Structure formats: structure tokens, C-alpha cells
Amino acid sequence: MVYRCGEKPGKGRYICINCGEDLYLDDEMDAILPCEKCNSCYFQKGFDMRYT
Q1: Are 31 and 41 in contact (CB under 8 A)?
Q2: Which of 3, 34, 38, 41 has the smallest count of CB within 10 Å of its CB?
């Protein structure tokens, strides 16, 4: 599943589809922001050891 900027997919790790940069959301109400490295707005869910 692909998540886009502005969506609120919940806590966890999200990986930029374009460059692989990690984005961590720590709150259920946090929204996906553009990638800090490449400015892409497309992310996929990644495994996050912090929430296991």
C-alpha cells in the first residue's frame, strides 16, 4: 500500500519509495510529510522494531 503526503496512517516507520529515506510517525494523528531528502510524497510501511 502506498501512503501519500497529508494522510494519517498511524504510528510507525514509513519508507520513501523514491529514495529509501525513513520517516517515523510517533502519534496516530501525525500526517505524512514530504521526504526530507528528495521531497517525494510517496511512502510505504516499513517494519519498526520500536513498536513490536
Answers
A1: no
A2: 38
**Separation of alpha carbons 26 and 28, rounded Å:** 7
The three grid cell numbers given for residue 21, joined into one nine-digit string: 529515506
Cα distance between residue 1 and residue 9, in whole Å: 11
What's the predicted TM-score (pTM) here? Answer: 0.87
Question: CA-CA distance, 13 to 8, in Å (whole number)?
Answer: 12
Q: What is the DSSP string of 4-35?
A: ETT----SEEEEETTT--EEEE-STTPPP---
pLDDT tens sequence across 1-52: 999 999 999 999 999 999 999 999 999 999 999 999 999 999 999 987 665 5
